[in-house]
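Batch job 17 of 40 flagged for manual review because the log was empty.
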Amino acid sequence: MCASHNIMLYGYGGGGHNGAYLSDSIMLVSIQPQPNGPPQVAEISIPRDWYVPNQLAGGKIDYGRINQAYSDGIDGQGPVPAGQEGAGASVADPTIEHLLGIKVDHFVGVDFQAFKAAVDAVGGVDVVVPHTFTDYQYPHGECDQGDCRYMTVHFNAGRQHMNGTTALEFARSRHGDGGEGSDFARSRRQQLIIAALKQKAVSVGGIGNLPDLINALGDNILTDLQIGDVEAVYGLVQGVNPSAIEHISIDNTNFLYTCNYPYSCGAYYLYAHDRSYTSLRHFIENVFPSPAVRGEKAKVTFEDASGRGVGASGRWTALIGELGFSTTDGGTVGRQTATEVIDQSGGRDAQTARWLASYFGVSVTTRTSSASAGTPGSNGGVVVVLGTAEEKAFLGNPGVGN
């Protein structure tokens, strides 16, 4: 199988904004070509408050939020001197590579002005807002320019047509009510805007706006993508069904946790459960199950037998669901050490069972659904019983920080 193409997107305020090159939005777009048919695509959002070892020049490390990495590069702390093209990415890209265990092929840096201009250049975007929410603490202006006031932004659930300013407010909002103040919700909103912009730009009507789009971006976008690279990427993804794109969020519902600010730490940070990043790298390595596996459309149930009672079944239900599987949270069951992958499908979902067994490092157990009657997963399909060994592997070594 061909190697995946990995493109990093960094969004930041730019000139005239506080922390001009602190990347407010960070997203990896990974494209996996297939020998037959369109490629698989994953959009992986990364929270700005993740406390990580940012990779500076000469093997030096700067521990801090991941959103500092691009800014550190712009300031000349990476291998590319300040003021030269790619300075920001020269720190940010190696940091991402270290955390996720991938090779970054290209980067795109976009400031707020370019973001708004891009949306306006295609005539605005249509977004289905998942939940009604209000943010009473959206920044009215920039503190370093004397405007530290807040303003209120509000969005109703349902299909909304957004211009550049509204789309930026939707993507940037960090303090919305109704569950929209979380890192997870914010990442999903950013993915919605990018998906809507991409769909509008390549639509029949949007193609005519491409010259305006390119001109609107102007100097407000930095990238190492050349025209040939852009054409190659476009050729890869033009046939991809938007509904088939995987939308993944690395956040405090899965691989990260909050530091319980302000009670346990002096600033709001997110930390990795596994400071060696092994479990996260393993997940990223497996974000593209083969089309044959996904084509089975198997029902997968996760049961928590870890004995910790901290929602392991819910975590894996969400994570594996983001990879395109139909997943169900089977809740807590009796504690056991080993993780089990049980094929109850009578062979219909054999490839899915083998993929899951490979992921969790175990063998497949074959059992008829009646043999496990009374358990949450006793309705056929595949059941994954998460043992204490899996939780230990997921937590990894929280003492490792490099």
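Reviewer: the log was empty due to a logging misconfiguration, but the result itself is present. The chain has two domains: 5-272, 291-395. Unflagging and moving on to job 18.
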